[in-house]
C-alpha cells in the first residue's frame, strides 16, 4: 500500500522540513556550483564572441564609408544589437541551465540519498525489533533476582547481566528516538511554557546524582519569567542530558553554573562547568552519534554517545540553537538560545 503524502500541512511546516533536509541543502549547493561554473564559461564565451564579431564588422565595412562618423554609427548600432541578442540568449541559456543543474544535482545525490534512507530505515527497524527481546530478557532477570532460591553467586551474575541489559535498552531507545526525530515522526506538544521551572526540575532530578560526587549548582537568573514555545517533556530530556554530562565530566567537588538571561528578545541559557574539558579538534564531532570526547579519559563514565545528538535535534525542533565551547582542564560551556514568546 502506497503511503499518501499529507498535503494538509501548513506551508511554513513544509518550508521548515526543507530547511532541515540535509540532502535538499546539498542539492541546492551543488546546483549553485553547476550554475556558477557554466555562468563563468558562458560569460567568457560571450565576450570572445562579441569582440570577435565586432572586429570582423569593422574590417568588413572599413573603406565602405567616406565619413568616419557614419562608420562609427554603423558599428555602434551593430554592437548594440549584438549585445542585446547575446544577452537574451545568455538569459535563456541560464534559465534552462538552472533547471538542468537542479535536476542533475538531484540525480548525482540520488544514490547517496537512497543509502542514507536505507540506513535510517535499518536503524528504525533494528531498534524497534530489539526493544521486545530486551524487555523480555530484562523481565526474566528481574524475576530471577527476586527468587530467594538463587545462590549469591547467581544473584551477582544476574545483577551484572541486568545492568548490561539496562544499558543496551537505553541505547536502543535512544536510537529509536533519533530515528523518529530525523523522520519527523516524534510528536511534539508545543505550548507557551516558562523556561526556568523546567531547568529547576531537571536539576532536582539530578540532585542525588550530583551530591554523590560532591557537585553543587549555582544560579544566575533574570527576574523576569522567560517563556518560549516548547514541549516540556522534550526540553526536560535535553536539559537532563546536558546537566548529566556536566556532572560526569566535572570530577569530584565541582560546581556547575546555570545562567538564564534575556538578549535581543531571546532566552539565553548557559550551563558551564570547570571539569576536564574537551579538546578544540574534538568540538566539531561531539554531536555525532556514538562519539565520546577523549575516550581515554572517560572510560569510567557510562554513556552511549547519543545524548548530545538527541539534545541537538530537540533544540532545533524548538527553533533554538546550541553551541559548545571548551578547553582542556578549564571546563565546558554550553549555550542554548530560544526565541521568546509573550507570557500567557
Characterize the structure shown.
With 344 residues, the chain is an alpha+beta fold. It is built from 8 helices and 7 strands. Strands 1, 2, 3, 4, 5, 6 and 7 form a 7-stranded mixed beta sheet that branches. The radius of gyration is 31 Å and the shape is elongated.
- Run of helices and strands: HHHHEHHEEHEEHEE
CATH topology of the largest domain: Heat Shock Protein 90
* CATH H-level superfamily of the largest domain: Histidine kinase-like ATPase, C-terminal domain
Largest sheet: 7 strands, mixed
Helix content: 55-70%
Mean pLDDT: 78
CATH class of the largest domain: Alpha Beta
Total beta strand runs: 7
Short description:
Helices cover 59% and strands 14% of the residues.
Task: List the defining traits of the structure above.
elongated, 8 helices, 344 residues, alpha+beta, Heat Shock Protein 90, single chain, disordered N terminus, 3 domains, 7-stranded mixed β-sheet
Amino acid at each position: 500500500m502506497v503511503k499518501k503524502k499529507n498535503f494538509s500541512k501548513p506551508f511554513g511546516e513544509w518550508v521548515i522540513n526543507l530547511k532541515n533536509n540535509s540532502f535538499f541543502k546539498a542539492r541546492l549547493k551543488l546546483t549553485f556550483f553547476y550554475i556558477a561554473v557554466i555562468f563563468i564559461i558562458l560569460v567568457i564565451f560571450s565576450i570572445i564572441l562579441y569582440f570577435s564579431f565586432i572586429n570582423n564588422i569593422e574590417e568588413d565595412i572599413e573603406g565602405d564609408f567616406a565619413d568616419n562618423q557614419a562608420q562609427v554609427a554603423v558599428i555602434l548600432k551593430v554592437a548594440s544589437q549584438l549585445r542585446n541578442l547575446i544577452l537574451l540568449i545568455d538569459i535563456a541559456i541560464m534559465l534552462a541551465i538552472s533547471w538542468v543543474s537542479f535536476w542533475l544535482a538531484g540525480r548525482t545525490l540520488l544514490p547517496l540519498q537512497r543509502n542514507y534512507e536505507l540506513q535510517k530505515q535499518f536503524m528504525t527497524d533494528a531498534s524497534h525489533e530489539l526493544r521486545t527481546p530486551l524487555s523480555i530478557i530484562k523481565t526474566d532477570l528481574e524475576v530471577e533476582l527476586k527468587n530467594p532460591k538463587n545462590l549469591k553467586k547467581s544473584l551477582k551474575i544476574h545483577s551484572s547481566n541486568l545492568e548490561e541489559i539496562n544499558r543496551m535498552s537505553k541505547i536502543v531507545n535512544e536510537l529509536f528516538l533519533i530515528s523518529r526525530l530525523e523522520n519527523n515522526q516524534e510528536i511534539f506538544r508545543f505550548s507557551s511554557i516558562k523556561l526556568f521551572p523546567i531547568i529547576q526540575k531537571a536539576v532536582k532530578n539530578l540532585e542525588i546524582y550530583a551530591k554523590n560526587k560532591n557537585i553543587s549548582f549555582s544560579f544566575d537568573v533574570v527576574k523576569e519569567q522567560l517563556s518560549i514555545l516548547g514541549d516540556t517533556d522534550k526540553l526536560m530530556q535535553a536539559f537532563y542530558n546536558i546537566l548529566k554530562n556536566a556532572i560526569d565530566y566535572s570530577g569530584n567537588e565541582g560546581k556547575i553554573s546555570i545562567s538564564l538571561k534575556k538578549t535581543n528578545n531571546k532566552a539565553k541559557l548557559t550551563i558551564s562547568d570547570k571539569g576536564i574539558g574537551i579538546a578544540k579538534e574534538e568540538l566539531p564531532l561531539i554531536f555525532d552519534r556514538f562519539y565520546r570526547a577523549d575516550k581515554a579519559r572517560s572510560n569510567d563514565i557510562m554513556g552511549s554517545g547519543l545524548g548530545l545528538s538527541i539534545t541537538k535535534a530537540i533544540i532545533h525542533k524548538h527553533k533554538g540553537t546550541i553551541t559548545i565551547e571548551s578547553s582542556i582542564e578549564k571546563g565546558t560551556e554550553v549555550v542554548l538560545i530560544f526565541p521568546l514568546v509573550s507570557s500567557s
